[in-house]
């Protein structure tokens, strides 16, 4: 990955590749480290449990966009408070039961379809036997 990043930064953006490209690579990597949230880079403690975002938070916080739920975490090394997207246990349970209901409905509909098809095939077989007996 580093080689590909080096290639992209050096070959495609700088007229002459080589040692003059290294400062740009290190600057890019250090900017990427500062742009990443602290909970990705270090240990953290959950300060506020997972809760649903309100309308304002959903529009303005990037952490609320993914799931609509957010928790406040405190990073131990930098001692910063940041917000992290999370999945609600209530939402997970709701989605689980929706999935179970959908699978039950699908199972019931296919079971009914199998019974209808079996009756149709039985009727065709009985009619075929009746015609064979009548032709004798």
UniProtKB/TrEMBL annotation:
- Pfam families in the record: JTB
Q: Which domain of life is it from?
A: Eukaryota
Q: Give a GO cellular-component term.
A: mitochondrion
Which named protein is this?
Protein JTB
Record's signal peptide: 1-18
The protein's location, in the record's own words, is: Cytoplasm, Cytoskeleton, Microtubule organizing center, Centrosome; Cytoplasm, Cytoskeleton, Spindle; Membrane; Mitochondrion
Q: Which organism is it from?
A: Labrus bergylta (ballan wrasse)
The answer on whether this UniProt entry bears the keyword Ribonucleoprotein reads no
- Supply one GO BP term: mitotic cytokinesis
Q: How does it sit in the membrane?
A: Single-pass type I membrane protein
Q: How does it assemble?
A: Interacts with AURKA, AURKB, BIRC5 and INCENP. May be a component of the CPC at least composed of BIRC5/survivin, CDCA8/borealin, INCENP and AURKB/Aurora-B.
* Principal location class: cytoplasm
Instruction: Report the sequence similarity comment from the record.
Output: Belongs to the JTB family.
* Job description of the protein: Required for normal cytokinesis during mitosis. Plays a role in the regulation of cell proliferation. May be a component of the chromosomal passenger complex (CPC), a complex that acts as a key regulator of mitosis. The CPC complex has essential functions at the centromere in ensuring correct chromosome alignment and segregation and is required for chromatin-induced microtubule stabilization and spindle assembly. Increases AURKB activity. Inhibits apoptosis induced by TGFB1. Overexpression induces swelling of mitochondria and reduces mitochondrial membrane potential.
| InterPro entries xrefs | JTB
Q: Which UniProt keywords apply?
A: Cell cycle, Cell division, Cytoplasm, Cytoskeleton, Membrane, Mitochondrion, Mitosis, Signal, Transmembrane, Transmembrane helix
